[in-house]
Each structure stands twice: as structure tokens, then as C-alpha cells.
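A quick aside before the break. I want you to see a complete sequence-to-structure record at least once, exactly as it would be stored in a machine-readable document. Don't worry about memorizing anything.
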Amino acid sequence: MVQVDISQLSGECNAWRAQLRNYRDELMQDENQIRQVAGKPLSKEQLQEVEHLHNQFHIQLINIHDLKQSIKLHERQLQTESPASEDTTGKHESLLDEFRSLEITLQQLRSEFSGFLSRTS
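That is the input. The structure line, written in C-alpha cells, reads:
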């Protein structure tokens, strides 16, 4: 069995949390930007897009928060083990999958938002 270095796993957790903080900051800026756009004269369809995007920003902010909390809890568990158990390494891989999936969702949302901004400018 290959032993996994706890410090490596912990470092990965820190990197994920830092990236999630960056994503959160970007989404908050996007939320401010969508509020500015919502103050302009828009068609009914554009207003529906504004509402959809605003809702998606909110949902993704919750997802970011929840994943950050899961990673923080996982990192605490890592600190109590040496070497990491199979359950812990499995949880780490699961969190990595969640992180990557969230990144894809955020990239799609950013693309959708950019397209909306270009159509309303």
C-alpha cells in the first residue's frame, strides 16, 4: 500500500480553498455588475436572464461555501491521521471531483454571463 503524505493532501486542501475564495470574489463582482445592468432599460427576456443569472450566482456562492466547509472539515481530519487512511484518501479524491465539477459549472456560468453582457452592452 502506498502511503500518502499528509502535508501534500493538506497543501492541496489549502490550494482548493484559496481558489474557492477567488471564485467567490469573482461571483460577488459579477453580482454587482448584474445589479448595474438590471438598472438599465431591458426587454422582458433580458430581465428574465438577469433573474436567472442572479439566481445562479447565489446558488454557486452557496455551493462554494459548502465545498469550502467540507474541505476544511476534511483538512482537520487529516491532521489527526498519520498516515492517511483509505477512507480519508477516498474522501480527498471525492472532494477533488467535487472541486473540479464546481470549476466546470463556474466556467459555464462565467461564459453565459459574458455572453449576456455582450448582448446588453
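Two observations worth writing down. The helical segments are 6-38, 44-79, 86-120. Residues 44-79 form the longest helix (36 residues). We'll return to this after the break.
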